[in-house]
Design brief:
Strands 1-2-3 form a three-stranded parallel beta sheet, covered by helices on one side. Strand 2, helix 2 and strand 3 form a beta-alpha-beta unit. By secondary structure, it is of the alpha/beta class. Helix content is 33%, strand content 17%. The longest helix is centred in the first third of the chain and has 11 residues. The relative contact order is 0.19.
Length: 72
């Protein structure tokens, strides 16, 4: 069996309430993608803050590597 610790898991999503809040409650690293459901005005007013904000899912590998979250 293979087990990961919560801090070794990432939640990637465009929804502050369902994706980011849920991921933070679980202890995951959170990545808010500024596409789809993302709304800047909601994000700016919210108390829910992701660990990282990215413009596109295509930016995820660079963030993971540059922040040394994984070795690619």
């Amino acid at each position: 069996k293979f087990y990961l610790k919560p801090n070794e898991i990432g939640m990637v999503g465009d929804d502050l309430n369902n994706d980011i809040f849920g991921g933070k409650k679980m202890g995951y690293k959170t990545f808010l993608v500024k596409t789809g459901k993302f709304r800047k005005n909601i994000f700016e007013k919210s108390n829910i803050k992701p660990d990282y904000c990215i413009n596109s899912i295509a930016d995820l590998p660079e963030i993971l590597e540059s922040k040394k979250l994984v070795e690619l």
